[in-house]
Amino acid sequence: MSIRSIYLLVLSVLVFSVSPKVLAQNAILPTNGYFVAPDAENVLQVWRLSTDGNAEMLTHAQSKILGFTVSPDEQQIAYSSGGQLWLQKSNAEAEVIAQTAEEYFLTPAFSPEGTYVAYTDGGVRIVDLASGLSEQVLTDEPLNDQFGSILRYYVVQYLDNDTLYIQYFDYGPYDAVPYPGLFDLKTGRLAVESEPQPYAGQSMTLLKDGQLLFTAYSRIGKGMPGLVLVDGDIAAPQTLLADEPRLKEDPESDIIMPILDAVEAQLGQIRFIGERILPAFGYELFDYDLATGDLIVDANILEPTSSWSFHQLSPDGKLIAGLANYDWQTGQGGDLTIINLATGTQLDLNVPGNIYNFQWHITPT
Length: 365
Prior knowledge:
Layout: E1 5-6, E2 23-24, E3 33-38, E4 44-49, E5 55-57, E6 65-70, E7 76-81, E8 84-89, E9 95-99, E10 109-110, E11 116-120, E12 123-128, E13 134-139, E14 141-142, E15 150-160, E16 163-171, E17 178-184, E18 189-192, E19 199-200, E20 203-206, E21 212-215, E22 218-219, E23 227-230, E24 238-241, E25 259-266, E26 269-276, E27 282-289, E28 295-302, E29 308-313, E30 319-324, E31 335-340, E32 346-347, E33 356-360
Parallel strand pairs: 1-28, 2-32
Antiparallel strand pairs: 3-4, 3-33, 4-5, 6-7, 7-8, 8-9, 10-11, 11-12, 12-13, 14-15, 15-16, 16-17, 17-18, 19-22, 20-21, 21-23, 23-24, 25-26, 26-27, 27-28, 29-30, 30-31
């Protein structure tokens, strides 16, 4: 597919700060959001941000929650706390469904029908919520090299009832970065790229037509793709962008712009955020047409001084959520900030402070 980069800067450029002067009077969100924040005893719990902008605490764990996921119907939460995997159903007490190793930052995954939970513990395990039985389907492997490297597998999400999207890491003498893989639960086969290349900050979007879109904050080496499309066979991915988007001030520049988040805002239309590094730090919004290959720069969306982390586009691509004032050094959570990309207004939310790991709920299609 030929790529025509059309750098169109909207005449009324939207330049937002994390503290706009105008606050939206009513927060109307396209879907619920979920996050982790401390309770009155400073224990990290799971909270829900409803579509009206009000938040409520959903869990009452005795020790901090390290990772969580919400079932597709939003009636169950699976979370890791105190070396255990817990299940909390709507209007019910939480129960332990598995023991886990504390070394893992555990983010479990529900099957589409909410009947199984996959989680990371020495590899990949799956627990049947009806029987309570747990099965190991992938096991971490020592590579027997001089560095004592270990190949480790981590659960990301279910694609359907029979397929898991996982990431695998080669933990050696250097920092590990993830490689994508698709695990077939029926055959036990792990499919990977024919020429595996590591992603940093990798994420995956399940498109409306069933294809997979991989994005990356960066890939190792110049010229590595930042947008990759997989149609059935992960061994033969299709590169959509030969590189992360270039700086619009200098399209011929060798400086790449990392991709932070991407959604299919409309059928066949990918909207994503690019992090501009030079000449001044900031963020830009892009739209990419899968059919034509057109790439459009919509606007600057945050000022260079913005102290945002964990940027998340809403499923319809109309809002951007982030954590302002997040402190990487101390691990202090941030202030949840959601901005309307069309108007530049910040939504008025009723949420606690010190928030971690905000995520929009994706409604199954």
